[in-house]
Write a structure and sequence with these properties.
- The chain has a five-stranded mixed sheet.
- The protein is α/β, with parallel strands linked by helices.
- It has four helices and five strands.
- It is globular, with a radius of gyration of 15 Å.
- It has a single domain, classed as Carbonic anhydrase (Beta-carbonic Anhydrase, Chain A, 3-Layer(aba) Sandwich).
- Helix 1 links the parallel strand 1 and strand 2.
């Protein structure tokens, strides 16, 4: 169990893209909760793939056992290289539609294995400013 059994923990699935970190972790811990980060290229892409799904489901199981995980946050970001970047889509609307579809598949995989966990889904925009890369999270309802 976690060194602090009263700490609320969630597992955050995120892409390994350096532009997202540490801003993504900071964003999801603003409410005082902690998060176990599950970082892979394409974020939920490996959670949907039958060849890698069991490994990632096991990461949630480990977080539940060791850290009393109480929720899962699924994220995808726009212009993700694991999906070919924004240029792979004929429009921004199509890219967002594919993100929602992938998040929906990932949510189904998590729900099937952990019906007791709260699941949230986000599409993350990225903006380059003078201070560097900023994340623009938008929660989506699936």
């Amino acid at each position: 169990m976690s060194s602090d059994p009263n700490k609320k923990i969630k597992v955050v699935f995120a892409c390994l893209d350096w532009r997202l970190h540490p801003a993504l972790e900071n964003y999801f811990t603003q409410d005082g909760t902690g998060c176990d980060m599950c970082v892979t290229a394409g974020s939920v892409k490996a959670l949907i793939d039958p060849a890698t799904q069991n490994f990632l489901i096991e990461q949630i199981n480990i977080s539940k056992k060791l850290h009393n995980c109480q929720g899962v946050i699924l994220t995808m970001h726009l212009d993700c290289g694991a999906y070919g970047g924004s240029k792979a889509w004929e429009s921004a609307e199509k890219e967002i539609a594919v993100c929602k579809e992938q998040l929906s598949f990932a949510k189904a995989a998590v729900s099937k294995n952990f019906p007791d966990l709260k699941i949230e889904s986000y599409i993350i925009g990225l903006e380059h400013t003078q201070e560097g890369w900023q994340i623009l999270p938008q929660q989506v309802t699936l």
